[in-house]
Design a protein that fits this description.
The chain is an alpha+beta fold. It has one domain. It contains five helices and 19 strands. The strands form six sheets. Strands 5, 8, 9, 10, 15, 16 and 17 form a seven-stranded mixed beta sheet that branches. It has a four-stranded antiparallel beta sheet with strand order 4-1-7-11, with no helix packed on it. A hairpin with a 4-residue loop joins strand 2 and strand 3.
């Protein structure tokens, strides 16, 4: 016959194992990054429609100060309070809403670069309710990293006379994003790793409209353009959308970058 002490130990161990298993079950697919949302150019707000999303991104260092991603994050944990038919008067608390805590981003360049891409750990705030989703903005590429890349040898050309010009080159990186959070009852949850391809370039988004053509030659000269700049052209300048050469001239951070606002020689 099993002694009372031994039975108590077995029951205690079983209880601990069950608690661990429940925690693991909660974490399995509880928090899911499903896609990256885009910006509505007219309002410059995140597009809430799940049917409109971004499959890859472009960052033009000619003008961009940073690059922000907008992941759509789902909380797939079952809403027990709702599923059991409880109402507000029952005073039942939903313990499975997830408070977002931090985002971890790492990068894998497709080409060799002299600039090291650091792993970034950023604080997050916000709540993803059960059986619902939320969209958050996360700065994936900082201004400091952009400056390092712009000043690296890959993106600088030195002429035979010692003149320095920006090189119209690009690199592609795979961005890996993992989001961490905590349920209201204290369980830590971690999202799936989400991979997003990002092209980082020098002047690749700049376009030169016909109105920019000058009388001195067939090539456009953006200084001659009198075209009106629309408000939507000023949304997230240098991120994902074509860039009017006049906007480029206005937002380029220095004379070196401003050379990218004119057509290549």
């Amino acid at each position: 016959m099993m002694s009372g002490t031994r039975l108590l130990k077995l029951l205690t161990a079983a209880g601990i194992l069950a608690a661990v298993c429940n925690c693991a079950e909660d974490n399995n697919g509880a928090l899911v990054i499903s896609q990256m949302q885009t910006l509505d150019p007219e309002s410059c707000q995140v597009e809430p429609d799940e049917k409109i999303f971004r499959g890859a991104g472009i960052l033009d260092m000619a003008v961009a100060r940073s690059y922000t991603v907008f992941p759509l994050i789902r909380n797939n944990i079952l809403d027990i309070v709702k599923s059991k038919g409880f109402q507000a008067r029952d005073f039942r608390l939903n313990t499975k809403d997830v408070s977002l805590r931090r985002a971890v981003l790492s990068f894998s360049p497709f080409e060799e670069t002299e600039v090291a891409f650091p792993t970034v750990d950023l604080p997050l705030s916000g709540t993803v309710n059960t059986e619902s989703h939320a969209i958050v903005g996360i700065e994936a590429i900082s201004s400091g990293l952009i400056n390092e890349l712009r000043n690296s040898r890959q993106f600088i050309t030195v002429g035979s006379q010692g003149d320095v010009r920006p090189a119209r080159d690009s690199i592609t990186v795979s961005l890996k994003l993992v989001v961490h959070g905590q349920t209201n009852d204290g369980n830590e949850v971690e999202s799936n790793p989400f991979f997003f391809k990002l092209e980082i370039c020098n002047g690749c988004l700049v376009f030169y409209p016909p109105s920019a053509s000058g009388p001195e030659g067939p090539a456009p000269n953006c200084s001659n353009s009198e075209e009106e700049i629309l408000p939507e052209q000023l949304c997230a300048v240098g991120q994902d959308r074509p860039l009017h050469c006049l906007v480029c001239s206005a937002f380029a951070p220095d004379p070196l970058a401003r050379q990218l606002c004119q057509p290549p020689l």
